[in-house]
Amino acid sequence: MFKKTSTRLASVMMMVMLALVTVLSGCGANNDTQASAASESPSNSVVESASAEPDQSASPESNKLVVYAALNEDDIIQLQKKFKEDTGIELEYLRIGNAGETSTRILAEKANPQADIFVGGSVEFYEPLAKEGILENYVSPNAKDLDAQFNDPNGFWQGWYMGVLGIILNTERFEKELAPKGVKEPTTWDDLLDSNYKGLYITSNPATAGGGYIFVADQLFRLGEEKGWEYLKNLNTNVHHYTKAAGDGINLTATGEFVIGMSWAHDIVKSAKQGYPIKVIIPKQTAFEIGGVGIVKGGGNTENAKKFVDWLLTKPIGEMNTQMSNRYSVRKDVAPPEGMVKIEDVDLVAYDRSKAAEMKPAVVEKFTQLTAK
Predict the structure, then answer these.
(1) Tens digits of per-residue pLDDT, 228-275?
(2) Is the pTM of this model over 0.85?
(3) Do 74 and 222 lie in a common domain?
(4) Which helix (H) or strand (E) holds 352?
(5) 294: helix, coil or strand?
(6) Where is region (Disordered) located (predicted)?
(7) 3-class DSSP state for residue 331?
(8) Is residue 1 part of a domain?
(9) Same structural domain for residues 218 and 312?
(10) CB 89 within 8 A of CB 63
(11) What domain count does the chain have?
């Protein structure tokens, strides 16, 4: 009896051991297969890693674009709507106020970029960001037919519109308060030195406003260093105060708080069309801005940012921007804005954009000291 039992136990033990060997062999074979597959297809592990921690900048499925805009609110809203219609991409924007403050924010976010695009404001504000390595190098195929002055030779910013500086005049207050004194409407920058404008003139701060800086540089280029600073010193006695943004002076003059100011001609015309008692005067030897757009390096939606730059440079968008903002297009096949003179008929100063960008820190510092006295 005991012999039969022992024989049965031995048989059972043998079956168990065979089963274990089979299972272990199978597991080993499966592990070898997985290791082999992993070594043959390294992209599999990359995909799994990316799935665990998604990299938005590499995602081809992105349907979003984050824009920091130094444009008027109604302009960026219209661009937002049209871009969605044309591309299906959702444009989220943050309007900080002016190009200086916008570029400062982008610089502060260098280690953790929040924007994909910086749009609006003069290209002078893009140069420092490019030098800091904050802008992505990208040359749109739509830029090939543009005049060279509108394309950054290093490929970090792109010009897409033009604006010229002008004088804004509140015609009601001028006719009531100054015309009776024999004061004539200004036609040149030098006319602003008339003491009758003291406390009635408003302009923008070159430290924060692109228009403010270009105006200062304009005087230095047209008069030379010494006479230019003398002019700015004398003009300062007539200035009531300096605003943060170039457009602020338009609102304050249009509503009658001031008689005269300096700003972008296209914005002045836009306000005049709304029925305000104002007019634009484009003086001789005025300066112009090249309005820029640049891609923020390390943003979450770089491919969509490139699509945005390409889109801005198309003829339909050039025409749309001209109609809604009265800015000149950089495209030769887009007509000048209604109510604005042709750009070729404007008497422009010999404006050295590279020198203007290079001398800006020193000029702003000197201007700040001059106006603080």
Answers:
(1) 999 999 999 999 999 998 889 999 999 999 999 999 999 999 899 999
(2) no
(3) no
(4) none
(5) strand
(6) 32-59
(7) coil
(8) no
(9) no
(10) yes
(11) 2
